[in-house]
Amino acid sequence: MWFNISAAPFLLTGFPGLGIFHPCISISFFVIYVSTLLGNGTILYLIREDHTLHQPMYYFVALLAATDLGVTLTTMPTVLGVLWLGHRAISQGACYFQSYLIHSLSIVESGVLLVMAYDRFIAIHSPLRYTSILTNARVVKIGLGVLMRGFILIVPIIITLSGFPYCGSHVLSHAFCLHQDVIKLACADITFNRLYPIVLVSLTGFLDSVLILISYILILNTVMGIASGKEQAKALNTCVSHISCVLVFYVTVTGLTLIHRFGKYVPHVVHIIMSYIYFLFPPFMNPIIYSIKTKQIRNGINRLLSLHRI
Description:
- This protein is mainly α.
- It has helices spanning 22-49, 56-85, 92-125, 130-133, 136-153, 155-163, 179-182, 191-224, 229-237, 240-262, 268-293, 295-309, and strands spanning 10-11, 89-90.
- The chain has a two-stranded antiparallel sheet.
- It is globular.
- The protein starts with 9 loop residues before the first strand and ends with a helix.
């Protein structure tokens, strides 16, 4: 086993000093969570049922929606438990597992956004070879590679995290378990757990963002070579949804990083709010973006709504 189930539980925290408002705040969170589940669930249902959406681009959209569902279902029980019911205790084993899922899915989401950029590059640079390059078998392999990268790379710090003694306070700063939050409570040498995440972020999030940027530089270079202005606009329009999702993800990541790194004098509640924005905003916005900006998905939603009216 990775962890000692009999060890004293950790205590989750909602919004310090705002305890009396927790029931009201929890209603807002509940609405956001339900909207996120419905939005991403609808995207997955449409892509599964609509054969016109059985294309590499939409398979990657489905993977993004599944990842967002995973993040939502991972954080929702403890967040609503703390805010709604005041249930703060979480066993160490459950805390490590939640932390593992949260950080793994964050890496997966970054990887999905990267492969979606690659998909757009192939579609614009080599449209006639698009389906022969991104075959179903290759899409499955890419998807498995993205998932394995996320779920394997995070294992070392979770294993070491579960082996540390926690002899002081067991109070965490959030309503869910984060590695950087739990590690502050350890009574041991945590050098590896401080350095490994830095290397991991550099090799995943930072590298992914650079490769996404390079992909769009190549896409722009290809588009500029198209003679027709109408065709240029049409090609770029297929990238709008993905660019929007990339901005939502990396702006929230950057904001959270800056707050944690340089926000020493920023009120603690701001740190907590930024953490919630990071985990709630992208999963909430992504299905909205694709529903509005992607004609095929928008048409699918309209057909689905018309069937329910009959």
